[in-house]
Design a protein that fits this description.
Layout lengths: L6 H8 L4 H4 L8 H17 L3 H17 L2 H16 L6 H10 L5 H9 L6
Helix pairs in contact: 1-4, 3-4, 3-5, 4-5, 5-7
Length: about 120
């Protein structure tokens, strides 16, 4: 089980571009700051249509959710998903592409977020 202290290293190992950003604050003690940084980066990749990097980010988020302890799962649900859901989806093709990138572990949460009106339509 991945705990909140292991999350920064997991992110850095998968997404080396975030190494510097994650070291701007003592991320090891601030799971929500860490996940927020990760979510903002993922959202930026989606907005720029850099789907290869966005896919890696979303797969990592899915792994963190599946294998994480309660604190990690809550951070993914409360911080990461809202940031990803706020990415504008201009048309049906963008929406389908986005749905194809969401990992199985996060898909029901993503759809629920969209249906409750908290996400972007």
């Amino acid at each position: 089980m991945i705990n909140q202290y292991e999350v920064p290293a997991c992110i850095e190992d998968t997404i080396p571009a975030l190494r510097k950003a994650l070291h701007q604050f003592p991320a090891i003690f601030h799971i929500y700051d860490t996940v927020s940084c990760f979510g903002e980066y993922t959202g930026q990749q989606l907005r720029e249509q850099n789907f290869q990097v966005a896919h890696k980010c979303l797969q990592l988020a899915g792994r963190l959710y599946e294998r994480g302890n309660g604190v990690v799962r809550e951070a993914i649900t409360r911080v990461f998903l809202p940031l990803v859901c706020s990415v504008p989806l201009a048309d049906a093709v963008s929406r389908i592409r986005m749905y194809s990138l969401i990992p199985d572990a996060l898909y029901p949460l993503y759809i629920q977020h969209q249906l409750t009106g908290n996400g972007n339509r």
